[in-house]
């Protein structure tokens, strides 16, 4: 099973795409094991006040919750650290975060053209 850290913008983009999560993920990395930071869940709950269809209950039931790493305040810093430590890909569409992940030798999964997922690995 491949570990996937979920970023809030990545999850929102995946939900907007209408892709079947299982099929799309299996095509790019195999069976995913989702990991969800407390901070990301907070961001998604705030986003859900404005956007419908984020399927947060689905994400929560399919994910292993992770406490926010101590000493870090910014979500991207947390995702980067955990990706490096555990060799997990990050589901994101955030350009700056993708650059940081690539420069650190970490992989990421992005939604491309709103129709498919693509894995960019080290």
Q: What does this protein structure show overall?
A:
The protein has a single domain, classed as 5'-nuclease (Rossmann fold). The chain is built from 6 helices and 6 strands, in the order E-H-H-E-H-H-E-H-E-H-E-E. Strands 3-2-1-4-5-6 form a 6-stranded mixed β-sheet. Helix 6 links the parallel strand 4 and strand 5. The chain is globular and about 35 Å long. 32% of the residues are buried. The mean pLDDT is 94.
Fold topology:
Layout: E1 2-6, H1 8-17, H2 21-29, E2 32-37, H3 38-48, H4 56-62, E3 63-66, H5 75-86, E4 89-91, H6 95-103, E5 108-112, E6 116-120
Parallel strand pairs: 1-2, 1-4, 2-3, 4-5
Antiparallel strand pairs: 5-6
Helix/sheet category: alpha/beta
Widest sheet: strand ordering: 3-2-1-4-5-6
Mean pLDDT metric: 94
State the CATH architecture. 3-Layer(aba) Sandwich
Query: What count of domains describes the coordinates?
Result: 1
User: Count the strands?
Assistant: 6
**What's the order of the H and E elements?**
EHHEHHEHEHEE
How is the CATH topology named? Rossmann fold
* CATH C-level name: Alpha Beta
């Amino acid at each position: 099973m491949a570990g996937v850290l979920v970023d809030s913008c990545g999850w929102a983009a995946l939900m907007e795409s209408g892709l079947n999560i299982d099929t799309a993920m299996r095509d790019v990395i195999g069976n995913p094991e989702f990991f969800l930071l407390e901070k990301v869940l907070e961001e998604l709950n705030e986003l859900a006040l404005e956007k419908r269809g984020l399927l947060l209950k689905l994400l929560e039931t399919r994910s292993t919750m992770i406490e926010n790493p101590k000493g870090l305040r910014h979500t991207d810093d947390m995702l980067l650290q955990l990706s490096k430590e555990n060799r997990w890909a990050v589901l994101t569409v955030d350009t700056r975060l993708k650059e940081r992940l690539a420069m650190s030798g970490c992989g990421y999964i992005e939604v491309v053209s709103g129709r498919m997922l693509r894995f960019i690995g080290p």
